[in-house]
Design goal:
The protein is of the alpha+beta class and 276 residues long. The protein has 8 helices and 10 strands. The protein is flat and about 90 Å long. The structure holds adenosine-5'-diphosphate.
Length: 276
């Protein structure tokens, strides 16, 4: 029998005693539910662009001319452009899902290595040049140099890139994004500060959830998948660190990645998430 997440088994012994065993299955239920919700979300998120691509391909075929209509090259071009945009987003969704499942899965964090924070920031600025210049946004590096963190350079670059890409995506043109670094409390803080649209207080707790977007329409328009911040959070956790946000609507947001400044103890394995 099962009562409120407690699995109960009773058995009678020969001597007339009864043994009652109880096991807490709340956690396994929670994990099973999270997994079910995740699969449902993934299916929905994949079906939407696939459905759009099917409709757009039909429209493109029609616009290239068929038995009842003459070709309309301008319309054909518009549909082809939208097919390109949707398929790029779909590709991104698939690769971010793979990234997330790698981070959450059995693969352990590679041996933590000393990583120069300057190198991370330089690489991120390099990677985000195209979206930044498309909106004439300046990405600046301010702060202490020669800081070191311990972990995977690849993962840390991915995390900070996601934060800077968001800062660019959710900011008006010709604003500024600043990456700030400093030593704090024996660790290192990397903050990404923008002058963007900001985040409503009611959304602040939820934006790190998979597929959660404060504004679906805007996220879609910017090619967002709703997975970027979930990936950042996992990377922070994998590094025994954390990510926090503070934001004012209409003023801007600051995302801060806090990382330990020394290698983790050999006897203390880095926490690995158990979800999915
Ligand atoms: P997305 O792919 O939609 O950007 P993320 O997981 O990266 O997904 O972010 C989740 C949501 O958090 C976004 O849809 C957006 O509403 C909000 N968000 C993230 N970063 C910022 C930011 N710098 N400024 C304002 N809103 C942001």
């Amino acid at each position: 029998a099962e009562l409120l997440g407690v699995h109960v088994r009773a058995s009678a012994l020969d001597d007339g005693h009864v043994v009652v065993e109880a096991a807490d299955v709340t956690e396994s239920h929670r994990v099973a539910r999270v997994r079910r919700d995740f699969v449902a979300n993934v299916s929905h998120e994949l079906k939407t662009p696939v459905g759009a691509l099917q409709l757009l391909a039909e429209a493109l075929l029609e616009a290239t001319g068929d038995a009842d209509a003459s070709p309309d090259p301008a319309a054909a071009r518009r549909f082809a452009e939208r097919i390109q945009k949707e398929s790029t987003r779909l590709g991104r969704l698939v690769s971010e899902l793979l990234e997330l499942s790698r981070l959450q899965g059995a693969e352990p964090l590679p041996e933590p290595q000393p990583v120069a924070v300057d190198r991370i920031v330089a690489e991120v600025i390099d990677r985000t040049r195209t979206p930044a210049s498309a909106k004439e946004i300046e990405v600046l590096f301010r702060g202490e140099r020669e800081l070191t963190v311990y972990g995977s350079e690849g993962q840390l670059v991915t995390a900070v890139t996601n934060l800077v890409e968001n800062a660019i995506a959710y900011s008006p043109e010709r604003t500024r994004v600043t990456v700030k670094t400093r030593a704090a409390g024996g660790g290192v803080e990397i903050s990404v500060v923008d002058q963007g649209i900001g985040i409503e207080p009611r959304d602040l707790d939820r934006i790190f959830e998979r597929f959660y977007r404060a504004d679906r329409a805007r996220s879609r328009a910017t090619g967002g998948t709703g997975l970027g911040l979930a990936i950042v959070k996992h990377i922070a956790t994998n590094h025994a660190g954390r990510v926090d946000v503070s934001s004012t609507v209409g003023v801007g947001s600051t995302f801060t990645l806090r990382l330990p400044g020394r290698p983790p103890e050999a006897s203390l394995p880095l926490p690995q998430s158990v979800e999915i």
